[in-house]
Design goal:
85 residues, mainly alpha, 2 helices
Protein backbone atom coordinates (compact mmCIF):
# COMPACT_ATOMS: atom_id res chain seq x y z
CA UNK A 1 0.00 0.00 0.00
CA UNK A 2 1.32 3.41 -0.96
CA UNK A 3 1.56 6.18 1.67
CA UNK A 4 -1.00 8.22 -0.28
CA UNK A 5 -3.52 5.39 0.01
CA UNK A 6 -3.06 5.32 3.79
CA UNK A 7 -3.61 9.07 4.03
CA UNK A 8 -6.71 8.88 1.86
CA UNK A 9 -8.00 5.98 3.94
CA UNK A 10 -7.47 8.02 7.13
CA UNK A 11 -9.28 11.02 5.63
CA UNK A 12 -12.14 8.77 4.53
CA UNK A 13 -12.43 7.31 8.03
CA UNK A 14 -12.40 10.78 9.57
CA UNK A 15 -15.15 11.99 7.24
CA UNK A 16 -17.20 8.88 7.97
CA UNK A 17 -16.89 9.37 11.73
CA UNK A 18 -17.80 13.04 11.37
CA UNK A 19 -20.92 12.24 9.33
CA UNK A 20 -22.06 9.64 11.86
CA UNK A 21 -21.49 12.08 14.73
CA UNK A 22 -23.46 14.85 13.00
CA UNK A 23 -26.36 12.48 12.25
CA UNK A 24 -26.48 11.13 15.80
CA UNK A 25 -26.42 14.61 17.34
CA UNK A 26 -29.03 16.09 15.00
CA UNK A 27 -31.29 13.08 15.49
CA UNK A 28 -31.01 13.27 19.27
CA UNK A 29 -31.75 17.00 19.53
CA UNK A 30 -34.25 17.57 16.71
CA UNK A 31 -35.80 14.42 15.24
CA UNK A 32 -36.26 12.35 18.39
CA UNK A 33 -38.34 14.97 20.30
CA UNK A 34 -40.49 15.54 17.20
CA UNK A 35 -41.07 11.79 16.81
CA UNK A 36 -41.99 11.51 20.49
CA UNK A 37 -44.45 14.43 20.19
CA UNK A 38 -46.00 12.83 17.11
CA UNK A 39 -46.37 9.44 18.78
CA UNK A 40 -47.73 10.74 22.07
CA UNK A 41 -49.90 13.46 20.54
CA UNK A 42 -51.15 11.49 17.58
CA UNK A 43 -51.57 7.97 18.89
CA UNK A 44 -51.90 8.27 22.67
CA UNK A 45 -53.81 11.55 23.04
CA UNK A 46 -55.50 11.36 19.59
CA UNK A 47 -54.87 15.04 18.85
CA UNK A 48 -56.03 16.22 15.41
CA UNK A 49 -53.31 16.94 12.86
CA UNK A 50 -53.99 20.71 12.80
CA UNK A 51 -53.35 21.02 16.52
CA UNK A 52 -50.50 18.54 16.41
CA UNK A 53 -48.70 20.80 13.92
CA UNK A 54 -48.84 23.55 16.54
CA UNK A 55 -46.89 21.27 18.86
CA UNK A 56 -44.44 19.86 16.32
CA UNK A 57 -43.08 23.15 15.00
CA UNK A 58 -42.11 24.62 18.41
CA UNK A 59 -40.65 21.25 19.40
CA UNK A 60 -38.44 21.26 16.30
CA UNK A 61 -37.40 24.88 16.87
CA UNK A 62 -36.56 24.24 20.52
CA UNK A 63 -34.59 21.18 19.44
CA UNK A 64 -32.75 23.28 16.86
CA UNK A 65 -31.89 25.84 19.56
CA UNK A 66 -30.48 23.18 21.87
CA UNK A 67 -28.67 21.58 18.93
CA UNK A 68 -26.97 24.89 18.15
CA UNK A 69 -26.12 25.81 21.75
CA UNK A 70 -25.38 22.43 23.31
CA UNK A 71 -25.20 19.82 20.54
CA UNK A 72 -22.54 21.39 18.36
CA UNK A 73 -19.91 21.76 21.12
CA UNK A 74 -20.62 18.22 22.33
CA UNK A 75 -20.46 16.97 18.76
CA UNK A 76 -17.08 18.65 18.26
CA UNK A 77 -15.75 17.06 21.44
CA UNK A 78 -17.09 13.62 20.45
CA UNK A 79 -15.55 14.06 17.00
CA UNK A 80 -12.15 14.84 18.52
CA UNK A 81 -12.39 11.83 20.83
CA UNK A 82 -13.22 9.54 17.89
CA UNK A 83 -10.33 10.96 15.85
CA UNK A 84 -7.81 10.49 18.65
CA UNK A 85 -8.77 6.84 19.22
Amino acid sequence: MLPEEGIMNDISNIMNEMAITVFQTAFMYIALPVIIVLIIGGFVLRIKWRFLQLLVLPTALIGLYFFATNGLPNMHEAYLLKINN
